[in-house]
Amino acid sequence: MYKTLLLLILALLPIFILGYYTYSKDNKKEPKLLLLKLFLGGFCAVILTVIISNVLRSFFPVFNGNIKEFGSIKLLIYTFVMISLIEEISKFLFTYILSYHDREYDELYDMIVYSVFVSLGFALIENILFIFDGGIQVAISRLFFAVPTHASVAVFMGYYLSFAKLADINNNKKLKNKYLFLSLLVPITLHGIYDYMVYSNSYVMYYLFFFFTIILFIKANKKLKEMSLMTTTIRNDRCPHCGAYMQNESFCKKCSKNS
User: Fold this and answer.
1) Is 204 a residue whose pLDDT tops 80?
2) Would you say 210 and 149 are in contact if contact means Cβ atoms under 8 Å apart?
């Protein structure tokens, strides 16, 4: 009974701390209903991840074995494709679908809040699955490493999605696509490196893992603070004729029609 309660507290604690920290840096607080929707979107991202993973495993049964027995190349492919790629794409989709065009998205920092809340919803489900199976040791490990990594990677996703939005508003499609690409590439790369080090069974990798996570947390926190200080506002007004963003104007520069 007490052990179950302790495990539940350890599963929830990093979620609450990181969620509150990210939320507290927002100058104009987001509606709690929207944040709840994004958090639950993280649950849905887990389901999508499981579905995609199972489909890929059926096509590539070579990845159904014991991960501890994988060679370096096989482990590299597994961590970057079967874990990192699938998880980050799933989180990206729900972050984008639930918030990118939302009316409440009016500051650049907002997207960092959105992406972090999706990642924390995802991390909570992972916590419950891993912690209640692995016990206190796994709970403590995830408290200090796994969950903060999910949040840190989400900061980078939100960071680049914010600039994609800004380019979108300014009708710069090329720049928008660049930042959308980075909003996936950077999280996938960081997540993949993290998982490869975790599963490598190498003392050298374990030492590198420690320094990598510390640097990741510092860089992510720096990005988070940088974005929280930016005062750039975002308008979500679209032209009813062509769908282009309009900045407090009644005349659309793209299709030359009045709104």
Assistant:
1) yes
2) no
